[in-house]
Amino acid sequence: MSLWVWKFGGSSVAGPDRIRHVARRVAEARREGHDLVVVVSAMGDTTDDLIALARQLHPEPPARELDALMATGEQASAALLAMALDALGVPARSFTGWQAGIQTEGPHGSAQVRAIAPERLREALKAGFVPVVAGFQGLSAEGHVTTLGRGGSDTTAVALAAALQAERCEIFSDVEGVFTADPRVVPDARLLPVISYDEMMELARLGAQVLHHRAVTCAQHNGLIIHARSTFSDHPGTRVVPADTIEPDRPVSGVTSDRHVARLALVSVPNVPGIAHRVFSALAEAGINVDMISQSVARNGHQDIAFTISDGHLAVARRILEPVVRELPAERLVVDDRIAKVSAVGAGMVTQPGVAATMFGALAGAGINIEMISTSEISISCLVAREQVDDAVRAVHAAFGLGAER
Ligand code: ASP
Ligand code: MG
């Protein structure tokens, strides 16, 4: 019998009717003769609600306890889906991450899967049960409950598919697959039938919420094809595959945005060695990831250093940088959390000139000012005012001719 790993996102299990719908889909696949391991996210906005609850009790909740709290969301949906399956006459068993043998390493809130010991899942399969695994969580070597970062249930599914040598790994959500842009923002966005691991990883890193970036890394590492599709239709969706299996016919494959960005600028710091090191090592020690960085040309022996971080880290970054500002010294620290990042991603841009010019032209044409620019081999990102970011996505998407043909 072939083994499939199926993962259902939060909106697919948002209430009893949807859970029942998922259960019916699973039951049908079973009837067709497939073995399934199902991974679930927390119901609807549960994770956000749990974080908000925690913040009502603590301004910066201890990471260990926040993980312990967040992990309950997925445990609830796993148990509920197992019940719904049982009600349909399909024997099922829910598993927490640690019961499923998922071992993690790294910090709370963004741990990585270190290893999987899937014996209990194999036993359950052998005994005829559908294992339903709580996504997004595992147990550290020290025995702490850890979570894998927002959207991390995808990674649970891919890691399990690799460990169990599943024949298929399908990630179900409320969208039909990976689009050239978020269809809620760009009505004529097109579904991509295939996309390469590298492009998908870059899109996920730059804000696209369809797949967790670590899930894509894990799939690439294991040579596993991820299939992203809709819970609510039979549409074939998007397959995430090795780059060498697709023809690169376009400079840009997709446009995405990230609103969870904050920019900090240290104004007028001395132009001497060691300043950047002092600033960024302080942030690194606190586990804060820095994204874009720019440093101005020095004037009168002073310059500005600006950089972006995830806006969730803003409070901590401010606190850490206060003494650094006094020590350097910098004239002041300027914070802007009304900004967002728009990015164009495409493996084809490596060989095609003029991609950056097209993107900047699109933004200029829409009257959108660029606050900061960064590039990678297969992406270009611009920082813009947050209230203009959807317009920016539409303008860039149109400029690269990504919309559906009419
Ligand atoms: N429930 C977690 C989140 O909302 C993990 C996931 O959905 O994959 O980020
Ligand atoms: Mg979720």
Automatic annotation (TrEMBL):
GO terms for biological process: diaminopimelate biosynthetic process; homoserine biosynthetic process; lysine biosynthetic process via diaminopimelate; threonine biosynthetic process. Coiled coil: none annotated. Catalyzes the phosphorylation of the beta-carboxyl group of aspartic acid with ATP to yield 4-phospho-L-aspartate, which is involved in the branched biosynthetic pathway leading to the biosynthesis of amino acids threonine, isoleucine and methionine. Substrate binds at residues 47, 74. InterPro entries: AceGlu_kinase-like_sf (IPR036393), ACT-like_dom_sf (IPR045865), ACT_Aspartokinase (IPR054352), ACT_dom (IPR002912), Asp/Glu/Uridylate_kinase (IPR001048), Asp_kin_monofn (IPR005260), Asp_kinase (IPR001341), Aspartate_kinase_CS (IPR018042). The keyword Chloroplast does not apply. Residues 264-342, 344-406 form the ACT domain. Belongs to the aspartokinase family. NCBIfam families: asp_kin_monofn, asp_kinases, PRK06635.1-2, PRK06635.1-4. GO terms for molecular function: aspartate kinase activity; ATP binding. ATP binds at residues 7-10, 184. Tetramer consisting of 2 isoforms Alpha (catalytic and regulation) and of a homodimer of 2 isoforms Beta (regulation). Gene3D superfamilies: Acetylglutamate kinase-like, VC0802-like. It catalyses: L-aspartate + ATP = 4-phospho-L-aspartate + ADP. It is an enzyme of class 2 (transferase). GO terms for cellular component: cytosol. This is Aspartokinase. Keywords: Amino-acid biosynthesis, ATP-binding, Diaminopimelate biosynthesis, Kinase, Lysine biosynthesis, Nucleotide-binding, Repeat, Transferase. Pathway: Amino-acid biosynthesis; L-methionine biosynthesis via de novo pathway; L-homoserine from L-aspartate: step 1/3; Amino-acid biosynthesis; L-lysine biosynthesis via DAP pathway; (S)-tetrahydrodipicolinate from L-aspartate: step 1/4; Amino-acid biosynthesis; L-threonine biosynthesis; L-threonine from L-aspartate: step 1/5. It comes from the Bacteria. It comes from Thermaerobacter marianensis (strain ATCC 700841 / DSM 12885 / JCM 10246 / 7p75a). Its EC number is 2.7.2.4.
